[in-house]
Amino acid sequence: MFIELKNTTIGYNAPLIKGIETSLDLGEICLLIGNNGVGKTTLIKTILHQNPVLGGEIRINEKNIKTLSNKEIAEQIAVVFSKAQIPANYTLNDLISLGKYIHYPYYFELNDTDKNEVNEIIESLNLGQYKNFPLQKLSDGNLQKAFIGRALAQNSPMIILDEPTTHLDEENKIIILKLLRNLAKRQNKLILFSSHDWRLAKEFSDKIWFVKDQHLSAGITEEVLINNDELLHPHLFNFDEHFVAPQIFAPDLHKEMLYSFLQKNFKKNLQYLKFEFEDGFWEISSDTFQEKCSSFKQIADLIENLH
Description:
four-stranded antiparallel beta sheet; 10 helices; ATP-binding; P-loop_NTPase; 2 domains; ATP hydrolysis activity; ABC transporter; single chain; Rossmann fold; 14 strands
């Protein structure tokens, strides 16, 4: 596991979250949710070793963060805060290039390889036409992508984002969330992000860290939400036009969670399958077979093996 929290307690003079036991690995995207004031930003700052751990430990790539320098942490984790200051007189190219300077002294000039990588990041984010734009002239969505581009330029295996979709309209929220998921899957990055728009954001996350009553619940997104159904007022988001849903017969909450899980993980046509939820089990059937599963992991394994 890339990041491990072992019996970790975080806070200031008094604990905010106690006894955290969880881990995340490269290629995963995790959504951090909870009410204001429960400790989400404090948790992020503690992972970055900006706040001291009150108890237990946090390990990054098998090393206790207490043993890592600020530079070593920056090489492992890039961060994008929601209230990041916009540097005056900087262009988009300047901002993304800043990500490279964690590897060099401040007076160092980027070499051609670095400059080419910055250009590739700009193009991958569809920001080429804005390369030399002043940051103040960018839209909120493109500015957010530019800050993500700076984090990418660090070449860190993990990226943490605090409220990356704040103040964006729904179209730009989806663009950013799709971008984060693609980064996790295509570039094997570990993405941890917090969001107040979690009902939409859950469609793009593999895991959830849910903070409530000084406790952090962690696990597969849909299973965490099912176990905390006070969060939900069921609604099906359809963000993938290639997904063809199966028949689902279940209570609204379970139907929403299964739909979310299947849409996120399977591009193939599933309309020949029927899912029925009863007595804690999912019965999956078609014209040729019938199986029972007790977890989303079992459902995923079953579908992977279908021809």
